[in-house]
């Protein structure tokens, strides 16, 4: 560890400025009631000594940390393997930086660590939290609520206690899925299969519902559960071909699983889109452009979702600061999706 | 934001347990001097009410947060684009989780945000910091020192004030580079070029020094600056071929830039290794195995470096807790490297 010089104290600043300890404290914490010449002297002493106020103490007074926690309910390996999270973080990072708020990403090895995340959130280290990729039965929503930090969710939480009034940013997953499947129907496809996402997440359930809205009498064998990963898409595609060798289209719950499905179709000698049309979800670049053939997909603006989550949270914090009694609760936002046509369908 | 139920207070716990506020405070903060039956009653009340101690207040007493900050001195876009960082974080995450310490990753848009990172570090939110990928003239080392948090660096800092006694974990960059270049010489190559890393980082400078140790009289035109990215490797390779069309080997400062160099060599019709032998640095998988041809490279154990950084920091914190007067300062560690032979050289 770095050998550190002793940190300048509040007392040292007071001595240097020739004022009382209480005066330094008031100036440092932005309090009023100190005459301008004294404020100037304290500020100069703070600068000369390189004094950094202890925010653990300071935050007890000011209650703002200028920091926002981001919690992704996935193991860190998944966070770095799936570009979805990098994109969402990019939007969050831009927005928080624009407001000079520090992005504090709390990484974990998995769900067993969520109690520790809850403790950190409750510990008075951040002004609020952005929580995304929640799974069914995850204790996080309750831990977050118990921690008492203002929170905006990425994706509709949809389960668990106390999330009934949760504020979230989501895409129109069900509507987007409907549009994808209708497009396949319009192409004359009749044996349309669906590779779902992880069904313990609302985004996967909503896309499955959208599929079913259009394929009301679909053969249940045409729906296979995936997990939003390329490997999951490969597994599901093999199972689908085994069950229903005559399928003529696949709607995959995201682009990564669609890329896995495309690999299996090629290995099995099925031409895309001639024999089997394929549609993904996300419009994740460069993935969706680099598949063979390039992927028709349902676009959602992932970076914008991140930006909006951060914006809603910061706006709520500002309102709360103005009116601590009630606190302004912003509304949830559901963003529209767009079908992007490339070669695969 | 989530509408939160009022958080149970210390007073509520005291009332429920039928003890004084001070007793609850002592139990919650792990203090001694409370009789066992009372401790039991307080614990039960804490559990029943779901009481979470306010750590901002608590940490003023206990001085431990069970959280460690990780600062990567790169914009977040780079953090998610270069698998080096994901690997180092994996090692850090495993080690911290094993000690139930929360990994707090502080992301930024760039160097302009480092003052804010310094404020967070100084704010009493973490027990220590792991800082890596430092660049020359970065204010971070000084900010970290001023923040007064125990710190272990990833890679030798090497510049700036106050880092003379810094504790760091590094690889033997210079020795590894020497071994790579000697291998090329052993293959009979004479016109050996070097694509450097970003020369405002010590790892790049050390690898260049290792190259020069062996190629004492090298044509200066055979050294071109890269930046550790595939695109930088492509640019540098094009420049090298323009300057020295007769080169017969390239040592690139990392695998990502080697992958860029390989693409340019293929585009220009040079056979690897017959016409030009190529060696990288890192043994970054799957990159090093998936290049065409697979890459001979200098292996460093990146995940282990992360694990060691975390271990050194935690050990130092424990020693400091035992003997707050002096604090145990662990020593820096430099890990050996190994040449891994594949098809490219």
From TrEMBL, chains A, B:
Q: Which PROSITE patterns match?
A: HTH_LACI_2
Organism (species): Streptomyces cynarae
**Mind listing the UniProt keywords for this protein, alphabetically?**
DNA-binding, Transcription, Transcription regulation
Q: Does the keyword Transcription apply?
A: yes
Domain HTH lacI-type, by residue range, is: 8-62
- This chain's protein is named LacI family transcriptional regulator
Is this entry keyworded DNA-binding?
A: yes
């Amino acid at each position: 560890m770095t050998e550190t010089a002793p940190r300048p104290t509040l007392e040292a600043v007071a001595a240097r400025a020739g004022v009382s300890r209480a005066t330094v404290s008031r100036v440092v914490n932005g309090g009023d009631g100190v005459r301008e010449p004294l404020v100037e002297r304290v500020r100069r002493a703070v600068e000369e000594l390189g004094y950094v106020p202890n925010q653990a103490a300071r935050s007890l007074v000011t209650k703002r940390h200028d920091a926002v926690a981001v919690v992704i309910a996935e193991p860190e390996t998944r966070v770095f393997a799936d570009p979805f999270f990098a994109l969402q973080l990019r939007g969050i990072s831009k927005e928080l930086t624009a407001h000079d708020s520090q992005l504090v990403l709390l990484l974990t090895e998995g769900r067993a660590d969520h109690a520790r995340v809850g403790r950190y959130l409750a510990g008075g280290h951040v002004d609020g939290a952005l929580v995304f990729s929640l799974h069914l039965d995850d204790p996080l929503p309750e831990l977050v609520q118990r921690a008492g930090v203002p929170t905006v969710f990425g994706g509709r939480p949809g389960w668990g206690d106390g999330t009934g009034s949760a504020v979230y940013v989501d895409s129109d997953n069900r509507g987007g899925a409907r549009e994808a499947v209708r497009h396949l129907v319009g192409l004359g496809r009749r044996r349309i299969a669906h590779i779902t996402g992880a069904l313990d997440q609302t985004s996967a359930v909503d896309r499955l519902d959208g599929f079913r809205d259009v394929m009301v009498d679909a053969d249940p064998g045409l729906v296979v559960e995936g997990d939003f990963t390329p490997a999951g898409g490969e597994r599901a595609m093999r199972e689908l071909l085994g069950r229903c060798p005559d399928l003529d289209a696949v709607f995959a719950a995201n682009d990564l699983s669609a890329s896995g499905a495309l690999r299996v179709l090629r290995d099995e000698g099925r031409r895309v889109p001639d024999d089997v049309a394929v549609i993904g979800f996300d419009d994740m670049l460069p993935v969706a452009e680099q598949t063979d053939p390039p992927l028709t997909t349902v676009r959602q603006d992932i970076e914008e979702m991140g930006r909006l989550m951060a914006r809603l949270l910061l706006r709520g914090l500002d309102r709360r600061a103005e009116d601590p009694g009630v606190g302004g609760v912003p509304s949830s936002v559901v963003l529209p999706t767009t079908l992007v046509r490339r070669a695969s369908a």
